[in-house]
Structure formats: C-alpha cells, structure tokens
Write the structure tokens for this entry.
Amino acid sequence: MATRVLLISLNRCTVPDTVYPIGIAYLSAALRSAGHTAKLLDLLAEPDGLIPVLREFQPEVVGLSLRNIDNVLIRQPEVFFADLPRIV
C-alpha cells in the first residue's frame, strides 16, 4: 500500500556552510522506489513552506531530520532543535 510521506529537514544553519539534506534525500528516493509518494521539504530553502506543504500534500506520515543538535562551540553555544516543538 502506497503512503504519502513528508520528510522535513529542520536545519537552518548556514555556518560554516549551507548543507543539502542528503540523508533524507536518500530516504526519499528509497521510499519512491518502494512505491510510496515522498516529498522532501528543506526548511533552509523554504522557511515558510511547512503549512502550505501540509495543506497541499496532506501526508500520512511525517519524518523529521536534524543536521546537528548544537554547534559544539563552548564560547558561543547555539542549539538547533529549539523549533522542534513548534513544528511537531
């Protein structure tokens, strides 16, 4: 049975470099190969895309991906999962 799967990359960090969400891109391709309908939403590329995608695509399953949980800098710590509760 085919399922509509939305995969969301929560990464919004651009320092030191912008990174493409390759892990969930591979997962998306595998899901499509298995006959599912998969959509990848990169919140770095489309920061306001969540609500429109949810309304249009109406996923049955949602997967979330974090690049890192923090920047590992002791003098300037930054946490990357602060948006997680709001998005969930």
